[in-house]
Design goal:
12% strand, seven-stranded mixed beta sheet, four-stranded antiparallel beta sheet
Length: 449
């Protein structure tokens, strides 16, 4: 079988998979999961026809997937994949570029520069910001906070990249009570500690209270949040940022999905003041709907980001322009910025705004429909997150489990302020009004059973 035939076969199987999503169970069936055991066999002694490999992969692997690419998956703030972004991912995989160095991937490096500029424009962030394309918000937080760590210790005369943290001046880190676990993980990886933080109380929606911000100084990093993972609420950056900056602190915003509100005119007020921060983390595989994995770290101080990330060696040929490896933890990596470029090129400014608005409208419809049916909505639905409760904790857990088994749609569970809730996250371009109505009917049917 020729390479062209193999690739054409893969494209046909992928198209078949996507075409079947509207009519299949969102979660894989027990039978589909059981068939995965057939893949666990001894390593073949010799080569196998690639066509046979692909056919088996599709026959066994495709039914065992969670249908996150379809329109009725509402768990974990998982976006779908726009057609342009998905196809660009295939093309970039065929290019097989190592995007760490511009000399190795000149086309990808150029595309990532444009994608970075377009991102800043779409989100209303300062045009001179530096950025790096990483795996997701966890690494975006890590990368941006590494730049913050460098900057605050540099002010104290300490070179953390050269000398490490042993004997370094202490750094203060301030987070909200509703800080996302990815920020805490990043702080742990950076040696700043997951529990060695000052927590600020939050309000009923999970937003940091500006009136409870502690005294700060120029060796403090304040971590704010755009998009609470449960409620979708955003910290009042417009109130918090000036106070933090007046005392010399660095302000970082974890905006994995909530930062995209800045791209939608009717939602931008939720993240007012966001452009005044010093660094930002966001996911592209959430609301921009590019394939996994894709995140972006953004930093106002490009020199701090380069100081934290860059490495040099005689064999690493440096060109006159931007070198991608100077902005990310990885040296070798895939050209994930290509998909971001493709998504933004296909959508344009108004298309990005429409995608955000569409998801928010769907979330509001879920909340209105469930409330009208007599179920308790626990959050003010301002973005794409809905928390619903079907009676007590046990009843709510029963509904979640039954809904996941039913296959019409998929939602996860959470605990919000001590109460079990079902969490509906609307993040996919593929979700239609029909998907929402079909899913809403299933939720109500199961809750009443």
């Amino acid at each position: 079988m020729t390479q062209r035939t193999v690739l054409q076969t893969a494209a046909a199987l992928a198209a078949e998979y996507l075409a079947g999503l509207p009519t299949r169970s969102v979660a894989p069936t027990p039978a589909a999961l059981a068939r995965l055991r057939s893949l666990d066999r001894p390593l073949p002694d010799g080569p196998v026809d690639p066509a046979a490999v692909l056919e088996e992969l599709h026959a066994v692997g495709s039914p065992a997937t969670m249908a996150t690419a379809g329109g009725r998956f509402f768990g974990f703030v998982v976006g779908g994949s726009l057609p342009a972004a998905l196809a660009a991912s295939w093309l970039a995989a065929a290019w097989d570029q190592d995007a760490g160095l511009a000399v190795l991937a000149p086309g990808a490096a150029a595309l990532e520069e444009v994608a970075l500029r377009w991102l800043l424009e779409a989100l209303g962030l300062p045009p001179g910001c530096a950025g790096g394309f990483v795996t997701g918000a966890t690494m975006a937080n890590f990368t941006a906070l590494a730049a913050a760590r460098h900057a605050v210790l540099r002010r104290a005369g300490w070179d953390v990249e050269a000398d490490g943290l042993f004997g370094a001046p202490p750094i203060g880190v301030v987070v909200g009570d509703e800080v996302h676990v990815s920020v805490l993980k990043a702080l742990g990886l950076l040696g700043l500690g997951r529990t060695r933080v000052t927590r600020v109380p939050t309000d009923a929606l999970g937003r940091m209270r500006a009136d409870r911000l502690p005294p700060l100084d120029d060796r403090t990093i304040v971590c704010l949040q755009a998009g609470n993972v449960n409620t979708g609420a955003c910290d009042p950056v417009r109130d918090l940022c000036p106070v933090a900056h007046s005392q010399g602190a660095w302000v970082h915003v974890d905006g994995a999905f909530g930062l995209w509100a800045a791209a939608a005119p009717t939602r931008a007020h939720l993240v007012a003041g966001i452009a005044a921060a010093d660094s930002w983390a966001l996911d592209a595989h959430k609301w921009l709907n590019v394939p996994y994995d894709s995140g972006v770290a953004l930093c106002r101080d490009g020199a701090a980001l380069r100081a934290a990330m860059a490495t040099h060696a005689a064999y690493l040929l440096q060109g006159p322009g931007r070198e991608p490896d100077e902005y990310t933890p990885e040296l070798s990596r895939r050209a994930r910025g290509v998909e971001i470029w493709a998504a933004l090129a296909a959508l344009g400014r108004s298309g990005v705004a429409a995608l955000v608005e569409q998801c928010c409208r769907h979330a509001t419809r879920f909340a209105d429909g469930l409330s009208a049916a007599g179920y308790e909505i626990l959050n003010e639905v301002t973005l794409n997150q809905v928390l619903v409760r079907f009676g007590d904790d046990a009843a709510t857990r029963r509904v979640i489990a039954a809904l996941q088994a039913d296959g019409t749609c998929w939602c996860g569970g959470t605990v919000w302020q001590g109460r079990t809730a079902m969490r509906i996250s609307v993040s996919s371009w593929a979700t239609t009004e029909e998907d929402v109505e079909q899913s809403l009917a299933a939720m109500i049917r199961i809750a009443r059973a």
